[in-house]
Amino acid sequence: MTRIAAIILAVTAVIFSVPSQASDSVDVSLGGIVWYNWWKPAWSDGKSFFNIINPSSITYRMDDISDFRTSSSFLAGPGISVCLFNKFDVSSIFVIGKYDYRMSGLVRAVHFKIPDMVLNGTLTDYNIYFRKVLKWDSDTTFAYLLTKNFKVFTGFKHQGYNYNEIFYNSDLLEAAQGNFGYLGRSLVNRMRGYGTGLGVGFNFPLAEGFYFILNFSGIVLWCTEDIGLKYSYRVSPGPVIRPFMVYFKEGKFTSYGTNTSASFSYYLDSLGTSVALGFRHQALYNKQKFNNNIYKNCVAMNMVDGRFDHFYGITMSVTYTFSIYSRSGSSGAGGGGGR
After folding, report:
1. Which of 104, 200, 111 is nearest to 147 (CA)?
2. pTM score, two decimals?
3. Strands 25-40 vs 308-326: parallel, antiparallel or unpaired
4. Domain boundaries of the chain, sorted by first residue
5. d(CA 290, CA 18)
6. Beta bridge partners of 166
7. CA torsion through residues 144, 150, 152, 158, sign
8. In whole angstroms, what is the distance from residue 250 CA to residue 294 CA?
9. Are 257 and 282 in contact (CB under 8 A)?
10. Which residues pair with 245 in a beta bridge?
11. pLDDT, tens digit (0-9, with 9 covering 90-100), for 16-70
């Protein structure tokens, strides 16, 4: 609430501090965005960690989970922007969508003794992962138009996801000896990332009402990962079913990257409406602390240090623009110019 109030006060101050003779209008644009994209998460070719709590010891297990395939989906949501006196522009978009990921196959599992992470053995297991993801992405930008066709901007970025995971594991070595058993687990993973960025934008007129728009920015996000365990169990030969105790701590990592978008936009002056079709790509490189003391590293479950997150696809938007203030001081809805 404090951040929202500060933004409102800042915008109000700008409106009333600009000399009236230099003003043009205040235009508001409202619309919707649809984005069909492909998402390759950083954890799709990384490693998975979790603690195994046995009656006599605690070990840390590391699995190679490098076989998740890139998933595609629709993201959609609203967008709003306010252009002040043809100089300042404040805009915000929010999109949300669902993804399904599945991985199965042979993996190399490594066990470490806690707390000093001494190697305790390696296994060849067969793992199955199901992850159903709800992902969202939000950008709020503050732009200054240096010319009619060039702007610089900064702003806030928030992205996150929740995924529900079901995991099964079978020890093939034990199974080959006739001791078939497996592990089962269900959990929810919650990732939240908050950050900022700085970028530039270009607006190239191609014909009357027809534009090519290019935006490029660098971004940094500070992210947290939190695990909520629903249930876990172990099925041993017999069969014997008993609880399988695992423990997760909160994870942290930092993401650095770029956000690039390019689109063609056509403004229908009679309707005060812009229609845009384009492409957007976001690439993030992750840094995460990990060392030989489980209590001092920043891994919750997904090891993403040195991994890239790619988020790209085709965008389409429809935006209606109207003027709420003009030089003469009148206000009300009306057809706005293409921005």
Report:
1. 200
2. 0.81
3. antiparallel
4. 37-326
5. 51
6. 130, 186
7. positive
8. 12
9. yes
10. 53
11. 344 433 457 889 999 999 999 999 999 988 777 766 655 555 566 777 776 788 8
